[in-house]
Design a protein that fits this description.
The chain has 212 residues and is an alpha+beta fold. Helix content is 29%, strand content 27%. The longest helix has 20 residues. The chain is globular, with a radius of gyration of 20 Å.
Length: 212
Amino acid sequence: MNPRLNPSEDRLLAYAAGSLSAPEAVVVAAHLAMRPANDAWVRQLQAVGGEFLDEAPAAALSNDALALALAQIETDAGEVRPLPPLNDMPELPEPLRRYALGPWRWIGPGMRARDVHAPRDGDCRVILLKIESGRETPKHTHGGVELTCVISGAYATETQRFDVGDLEEADDDVLHQPRVVSNEPCLCVVALDGQIKMDGWMGWLMQPFVKL
């Protein structure tokens, strides 16, 4: 895996173990849906973890454990049907179809954002970001983690281009100014902790008006 275009191994390990924050896990799941090779690697990690659990010492169950399990089986009996999508964007990767979406919000010329109603973790939440071709965001850093996965189109920072399925990891040490370089708009799913922090005097003037 190219470490600059994929989640870090630490983040994938946390995802496989189920310990990644919920918003970050949503973005990683979208990335894995578009990158089968990475998804297979994560599934291998989960399988290894399952083997460790199988070899772990048995723990005592409560007296009513069997009755509760049988009751659950009876409740789940019958035909299993997939849940219908919860939003109006069929172009999204399957993991994102599971969540309702808020309305599109204007956040700047040629830029719109839409809330993904996935679980939050403090100030960390999930949004969709759509930016028109040729547009660029203000130069900014971050109050916390920012995971960005490209769903369609492409953007470039000062050092790297990100295409469909690529994932960028950024934090308060990263100062960048993404620019859409595809002929079509760039649609991304983003896990964002806090607000972006704009750079320079122009950013200071714009900051009160740009809320993600």
